[in-house]
Amino acid sequence: MKAMETLQFQAEARSTASTEFFEMPLPQGTMKLRQLMKSADLDEYDGKLGTGSTVWDSAWVMVRWLERCEAAGELQIPGLRILELGSGTGVVGLAAMALGAQSVVLTDFEPLLFLLRENAERNASSLGYDLEQVAVSDLAWGSSIPEGGPWDVVIACDVVVPIFDSEALADQFATLLDGHAPVCYMTYEERNAECGRRFVCLCEERGMEVIELAREQLDPKYSPDDIKILRLRKIVA
Ligand SMILES: C[S@@+](CC[C@H](N)C(=O)[O-])C[C@H]1O[C@@H](n2cnc3c(N)ncnc32)[C@H](O)[C@@H]1O
Fold first, then answer.
1. How confident is the model at residue 39 (pLDDT cuts 50, 70, 90)?
2. CA 136 / ligand 1 centre spacing (Å)
3. Which of 51, 91, 105, 156 could be disulfide-bonded to 85 (CB atoms 3.0-4.6 Å)?
4. Max intra-chain CA distance, the chain
């Protein structure tokens, strides 16, 4: 049963992965995001968009988990002030706004910010969120803090990848958990087990506890075995 549901999810994700407009149904309406994937689009931006110009499977897992968070007892979305790292197209932060979050700060490398702004504007009236509560900010991981804090939660999807700077990411989470937010949730897609283990060690070295959420808390259809949701908190002595 689980395998069949996972296959359906992967087919669903694949069918929207290579379209200019990615669509994801939400209780409030269908979220529609522009993706840039054709080489012509990417060339136009001088190849600087990297991996963030399309929606990744991890994002589906996080959005479907956010949708059932109340039932899962982890997090109540309505009223939350959220910071997102590595937002890409904005899929997760904007879904959280549709689900009733109070505000979101979407962040990524500067060349992607125009896409975040465009996607935030495109969905505001159809999904019923206040565009003024969506900020877009340039944040390369390290130790700087964007404006708009403190936050109730930090989210990040598919940000542990061998080609990314895991030390900078661990530094960023540690800095945010030091008084700017109490908890971070991130999805991790296991493409390389060593990369995942190293990231967890880097977080632990910086005084964070990393817990994998139980599978039962995730949406059964949107929880392939290789994608996990991790919760990061600062260890208080
Ligand atoms: C695999 S994509 C995931 C995008 C989106 N979160 C999703 O799940 O669809 C990883 C994102 O992390 C961003 N990223 C990678 N390294 C980064 C860094 N050092 N600082 C800030 N963002 C970074 C990329 O630009 C990209 O948007």
1. low
2. 14
3. 156
4. 53
Q: 3-state DSSP call for residue 136?
A: strand
Is the beta carbon of 67 within 6 A of some atom in ligand 1? no
Nearest-10 crossing angle of helices 57-67, 2-17:
120
Give the list of residues 6+ apart from residue 201 with CB closer than 8 angstroms, or none: none
Q: Residue 81's Cα: distance from chain center in Å? A: 14
Spatial neighbors of 110 by CB under 8 A, at least 6 apart, are: 138
In whole angstroms, what is the distance from residue 3 CA to residue 20 CA? 29
- Write down the number of H helices and E strands in the chain: 8, 9
CATH topology of domain 2-16+31-234: Rossmann fold (3.40.50)
* pLDDT, tens digit (0-9, with 9 covering 90-100), for 184-196: 999 999 998 899 9
pLDDT 10s digits, 41-53: 555 555 566 788 8
Whether omega for the bond prior to residue 182 falls within 30 degrees of 0, making it cis, is no
16 lines ligand 1 (CB under 6 A): no
